[in-house]
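Re-running the complex after MR caught last week's input typo. The corrected sequence lines follow. Everything else is unchanged.
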Amino acid sequence: MSELLAVEDLQKYFPVTRGLIFQKEVAQVKAVDGVNFTLEQGETLGVVGESGCGKSTMARCIARLLEPTGGKIIFEGRDITHLNRSDMRAVRRDMMMVFQDPYASLNARKRVGSIVGEPLEVHGIGSDQDRKRRVQELLEIVGLNPEHYNRFPHEFSGGQRQRIGIARALVINPKLVICDEPVSALDVSVQAQILNLLKDLQQDFDLTYIFIAHDLNVVRHVSDRVMVMYLGKPVETGSKEELYAAPKHPYSGALLSAVPIADPTVGRARRPVVLQGDVPSPLNPPAACTFHPRCPRFVDGKCNVDEPLLRPAPGSTDHEFACHFPLERWPLDEDEFRRAPSSESVATTAE
Amino acid sequence: MGLLEVNDLHTRFQTDDGIVKAVSGVSFSLEKGKTLGVVGESGSGKSVTFLTVMGLNDPRHTETTGSVVFDGSEILGLGTSQMRGIRGRRIGMIFQDPMTSLNPVKTIGWQLEEAVMLHNDVTRAEARRRSVDILKEVEIPRADTRVDDYPHQFSGGMRQRVMIAMALINNPEVLIADEPTTALDVTTQAQILRLMIKLQQEHEMAIIMITHDLGVVAELADDVLVMYGGRVVEKAEVHDLFAKPEMPYTWGLLGSLPRLNATAERLEQIPGQPPSLLRPPKGCAFNPRCPYVFDRCREELPDLRAGVVGEGHSFRCHLADEDRARIWDAKKAALDAAEGSAA
Amino acid sequence: MVYFLIRRFLWAIFLFFCATVITYIIFFVIPSDPASIACGTHCTPQQIVHIRHSLHLDLPIYQQYWLFMWNLVRHGSLGFSYVNGVSVRWIIGQDAPVTASLVFGGAVFWLAISIPIGIISALRPRSLMDRFGMIFVLIGISAPAVWIGLILAYIVGFKLGWTPIAGYCNLIPGSGTIGSCSGPAQWAYHLILPWLTFMFLFAALYVRLIRATVMETMSEDYVRTARAKGAPGSRVLMQHVLRNSMLPVVTILGMDIGLALGGAVFTETVFQLRGLGSELIQSANKDDLPVVVGVVVFACIAVIIFNFIVDVAYAWLDPRIRLE
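Corrected-run output:
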């Protein structure tokens, strides 16, 4: 197992300008503000978070569809952060993206064969005949009829279009596939098909995934490791077993708690922790711990003064979280959730 | 006799490509103060059914038959002015996307006041007072100043609260919620669902919750309708539905859910996609995708019939009772094993 | 919002410079000799040189341009016609009311026709009314204004004798020297055919635009919400649909009026109205630079002012812009 991707302190700030004649930068939207992770070949990293957390922006930065403002992206041991276009071209053969909206991400005026074959064309791989054969091969692999090579996107359903998007991503044999909410726009019964397909393809072609979603159930199903993001920063990362069984950060706990459970007996027996307020604007993030205005465990004087840094959970190698008063165990009922541990236990967990 | 009784409702749309059979024989009963969950995917007819109940379809292209009895009187085919007396006053409706469901050039106060003054003979000042009150009830902070703000000045969750406020301001007996939380973040969804439960208790209101999310249904509903291809394919009390679902589509739905506490490597998937309502399949609408299909399914539409549990639980399937019981027991065992291995 | 408007204003000044500079440059690229035209046919070469000097035509372009700008800013003067020495400002002052009458009156007409037809077409798509409206649109867009003008002049003016076929009357009696008739009634009477001609194309375009925006607005979610609240159709239309669908119409209306004030050439020519359009053509044919530039300046200012009005109106109508 080798390390395929390493992201170090990735930042993406969008300037906000004002000015009469010459636009001056007056503020920044810190969409991504310090993301670190490594990804082994064959692994799936799930990235979960709500609107405004920066997960899509991060994905686009890694794929260099956006220019990072700071930090490093190291792909297969090579620093690709500021690579020029022609060098990046070669890298793009190994890094492809699958997008969320199966209706918008396919060019409605092009035929399916042409859409799926485009990456081959762009990189100048194979003759026309070779390309056609490869495209038909992919169509079959993703569960579509290769004879539909000449059809247009609107002749397919949402799930089928998403398969076309996946075929397009895989046609040049990439190593890394970044999936940005690939099943969010699909019906429930079709979601399962696509999730199964992605898992099968990962095994068959030794793919590495970054899987972005807001649905915690889905993320858990496909991922090996999970990263929870809030306002541009990761607040907790860990293996899926550890994170889902024992989340440490109150936001992770709230997210897990908020997911409705498809079992009326279990679901109604518990009292979920409901957060107050809305996600704040990344234009004006709160001081220190950005989660503090909504945190049920907020301790005045600490959480709004000292920014918590990512630190490892006791007894674990890769479970990290950024909180001064992490959750002691899981599940917690609502009262325990809202009660920040006393100073003695803070001292203990800090060790 | 329930508060809302719908019987054999059919809705057909005239389109350029032909007739779309959006709703084909839906019947259900809603009791006062209870919550009915309506589950389905695209093309199931779940939204159209309730747009028909509210009379919100375009009359020029729509053909509706059947019966909708609200509080003892027939409201289907009612004249527009009489229907308007019910809409927004005795039955309220909220929709999926709060971003686009509010008029962007009018303040929310104006829109709330409109809701009041359409149905009540009161002064503007009184309407405004009621607007501020209802905004406080849906937990919008600083309601007295925010009432003069425009929709774009609110976040998504706040806008949905405003929508709920607008639907509730005249104290309706029924609230129809069409996918109200689908466009919201999961933590915001939790807030909105909790708010809806609270309001239901305070107003003694019946709720119809239309959704594709079985989790939401499990948390909120008393009874559940599962819809597919324009029909009700299963109808049950919520605990019964999840404990012993009676037909393959419901099994497929439950089985294909990724769960927080299960470790199945592969999800059970339903092959194919939801049916076209332009040319629906002959016989049972689910037959092209059903793993247990046999000849009769392709010829004859199964009637909605009660199972072994009793009248409260009905479904559409030709499979014999013993076969269904056996299949479900096997699936349940597999699901339990998957969950057990995670513990 | 104040930032927004100030920025717009600064851009406007910049655009003004660009437009006038380009006009000057074009003029100097065209081979011509205004001096000899101004002088007339029986001129000696010395006279031509003399005239050229007095008209400053022997100076380099940028100096001529500078003189022009200086005159404009210092004295509010646009110079004098090469052809007859008349103050350009006076010429514009005579022609502008004619064009303005035509354009504003025409705008009233075209809105009065297009708004009802557009709305009814949108409410009843594919009905008889809608199809009639679309035929009207097709004719309006395809038929040249000249043709419409001549047909109307011939049938209504000449054959039927219902209206005059040419000429302009002043709105206010005694103002200006054009025309021997004056007064509001005569003014309108002479302008009926020109208005009908001028507005035809615009009415057609606006019917299409209004139909499209109203149909789009009708399918918006908030219209469905209004119905779900129990609002009657008429209220939904007036309060929810119209205001929102008029936003794009307001934008385009301002632009169209601004542009048209630069001269509705065809209509003015057919009905012999001495407006800015026909003035521009005649002056360009005679290489009369000051008048050409004068009309360009006026048109520029008109476009700028109207775009500004549109920006303000839009911000007033749409609170999302107002509160940014």
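None of the earlier attempt is carried over here. The interface with chain A takes residues 3, 6-7, 10 of chain C (CB under 8 Å). The CA atoms of residues 171 and 188 of chain C lie 8 Å apart.
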